[in-house]
Structures are given as structure tokens and as C-alpha cells.
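re the bet — no i am not wrong, look at it urself. input seq straight from the record:
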Amino acid sequence: MATRALIGALSRATFRLPTHRFLSVGTIPRFASTLVIAEHEGGSIKAPSVSAVEAAKSLDKDNSISMLLAGSGPSLQEAAAHAVSCHPSVSKVLVADSDKFMHPLAEPWARLIQLVQQRENFSHIVAASGSFGKNILPRAAALLDVSPVTDVVEISESTKFVRPIYAGNALCTVQYTGAHPCMLTIRSTSFQVQPDSTDTKAHKAPISQVDLSTFEADTIGKSQYVKLTSQESERPDLGNARIVVTGGRGLKSAENFKMLEKLAEKLGAAVGATRAAVDAGFVPNDLQVGQTGKIVAPELYVAFGVSGAIQHLAGMRDSKVIVAVNKDADAPIFQVADYGLVGNLFEVIPELLEKLPEKK
């Protein structure tokens, strides 16, 4: 019966409204023109960068949005071709073509942003709050002598933003009063792009090449790109998946995580993990969900053997429906779960695998 109720939870959703904590100061009126720092891979703009464009729309109704791409070779040109129609709000695509930007190192990218800002004088610079944006934007802000506003989840006005504090347990409204540009990183999960806003073939923004003749090459070399390692998988990307199945230390071993992977395949879900599971070596750290891992907000989040530490909750509490399975009835995860099952996950997961139909 308990498992039947858990299966029923997969098709129902509830919503939770956050509580805000307010901090207010003055405002700086200025016509909005925004630069979105875009991340691309395999000739396509990554979904979080498109969400950054969606966020930039909220800054001003007459906002002029430019997208900055950098790199070299065919991949950059393909990404530029995708960028011109990735979102109808993009008015211009700036392309910096140089081998210096082949890899997302903070030093050359930050200097590029400084160069573009000095020429274009944008009122806002926006990037997604992932490893790419968190690496580059703070250094660029230091070069421009401004203070960035990080992890924005809501834009109230062009200089008023909502961001989480205390590991997501409270939301703080802050107002930027510094010099322009106002620099933001946004949580892409909070700015979902509507399906009709992507790949708008009728809209094509012009492409403009960034003049790099004055780019200071002698600033390069303080860090070095070594290599990129990634795992090939047919499962959805964890950061953008509609369903996420997460395991905690309660799974006890890497071998037991394979049960979770089978369940994820049946649900068409991505696999996540807690920091405890990652630290124990059960799974690689790119699957970590939480304050020091990935922030996710899927339609359905299913947690097995997850106690619900505050750092983990900070990375998944915006999920539309949260289902928790834990043998400890007092586990904190049940305080945020929409559906909870107190039970042995080594009995529940096999039963789910038996009763759930194969993914078509």
C-alpha cells in the first residue's frame, strides 16, 4: 500500500510559497542595457545562459540585451548561429574569436568582459550561477570595481533583487546602489524559459565581432587549463532534468547506487547524490546536489536515504514535488517533503522497479 501511494505521488504536484526577509536602500534610475555572458558547448548555447536572458527581460521593459560568446573554431561559429535565435529578447550577439578563450579561465574572460564594458557601457551584466559564471563574474567585477549580486532568484526592479541567505532558509530582498554596471549571477532554475521563447526562427539578432586589437595578452597565464573529464550518459542533465532521483549515505555503497540508476532509467530521470554519498566515493562529485553542488528545481524530486541536511535542502527545496523515503521517521527531509514514506529503501526500490512500467 505504501509503495502504491508513492507511485501515485509521481503524478501529483503541490507548491510552496517562500517567506521573504527585506533589506532596502536607495535606487539608481538608468536605462537598462544588459550583457549576458553565455556559455556554449558543442555549438549550442547552454540552457542556463538562455535562462539568464529570460532573467534580463525582467530588468526593464525596454531592455536591450546583448549576448557575449567567446572561443575559437567551428564550435564558436555554430554557437553564434544558435545564439541569434535562441531567445527573441536577444538584440545583438557579440563574438570574441581567439584561442585565448578556448577554455573558461577566469583571467582572459574577465579581461574580455572589462574590455567590452568599457566600449559598450552596459547598465547590467548577467551570468548563470553555475561553475562558469561563479568562476568568471567575481573577477570581472573586481576589474570593474563593482560588487556583484549573486544567486538571484527574483528580479523586482532593475536594481532590486531577491536572493537566498542562510543556506536557502530565508530570502533577502537587496537593492543595488553602486556604480554601473550592476553585475548579477542568477539561478537558472528560478527563470524558466517558456517553450515558445526558444529557437525563434523568425527572430535573428545581428552578430558583431569584438575588436581584440587592444586586448591585453600579457595578463594571461596566471592559471592553466589541464583537462576536462566528463561521463557519457543517456540520462538527462542533472541541472535541467524534469525528474531527479537522489541517493544519500543510506545507500551504503557504490554498488547499491546502481539500483537507483535503474530506477532513474525507468523514470527518464537524472541521478543526484548528497555530499555524504560523494565524499564516501559512491558517485562522482558532478552528481552532488546542494549548497556546494548543483541547484536543481525539477518537477519531481525523489530522495532515497537522504537525511535532509540544511546544505542539501538548499539545492533542491524549490522542486515542485518532493518525495522522500527514509527509515528514520524523524529525518529532516520529511519536513520539506510533499510525500514521505518511512521504510527500508532496499525494499522500496526493488518494489518500484518491479511495478513501474518500462520507459517508452
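see?? The longest helix spans residues 106-120. told u. also The two ends are 26 Å apart (CA to CA). so pay up
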